[in-house]
Design goal:
Elements lengths: L8 E5 L5 H10 L5 E5 L11 H17 L4 E4 L2 H6 L1 H7 L4 E3 H12 L4 E6 L1 H6 L1 H9 L5 E5 L3 H7 L5 H11 L7 E6 L8 H8 L4 E4 H15 L13 E5 L3 H12 L6 E3 L6
Parallel strand pairs: 1-2, 1-3, 2-9, 3-4, 5-6, 5-7, 7-8, 9-10
Helix pairs in contact: 1-11, 5-7, 5-11, 9-10
Length: 272
Amino acid sequence: MSISAEAPIGLFDSGVGGLTVLRALEARLPREHTVYLGDTARVPYGTRSAEVVTRYAQLNARYLASQGIKALVVACNTVSAHALPALTKSLPMPVVGVIEAGAQAAVKATRGGSIAVLGTPGTIASGAYQSALKRLAPLAPVIARACPLFVPLAEEGWTDGDVPRLVAERYLGDLRRSGVDTVVLGCTHYPLLAKTIAEVVGPKVSVVDGAEATAEACAQILSARTMLRPESPKAATSRVICTDLPERFRGVAERFLGRKTGEVELVDLAMT
């Protein structure tokens, strides 16, 4: 199957969190067309079984494939933990997940200390980051920390000030004394709180943005396959799609992206 370098990169998440990956991808590959799908009709995925998550992931992936994408970025930790092999097997284009990219970046950043993984309770319970880090750096001690309140803080726009600082201190204050030299943001919402997290863990700790790591992994894969979009007088386009409540989605999306989104398209995946 021949895929044009002019084709867009597709991304999906259960909601808005994956927009941090889209933002990082746009910064890393500004010439690329993108199409982002947020499955807001079924959010959250973290409370679902692995089988249901895989089924939802296949629906998202099939829709994006029908839009003629050249690569798929799974901008969701839950899907990356449970459904990446199934998606890779069923699709003709490269598939990039956030967990492997984030783990690889953390291993590169560590200077021999412990690596702390911050994520939602579901991601931490899955053990996906811990397994990836153990495979990539068997001798590195890993601390896994669930930080559930970071998600609503990010969505409400409370990313700096006293409230997020106190929450971060409660979750992470002990890491300053635990030999951690690297923290990986294992949830796509968490990059919005990266500054506050860095202030709490201290200047000697590297904070790895999983969104940026995923964007870099996608860039490397497309470059290796000579699939990067060439320079063109035509500006890159960015479509944003969701499966429910497009106006509400648009408001949060603009805060996550730091720019206007234009119209948010609505799609019913059950009808595609």
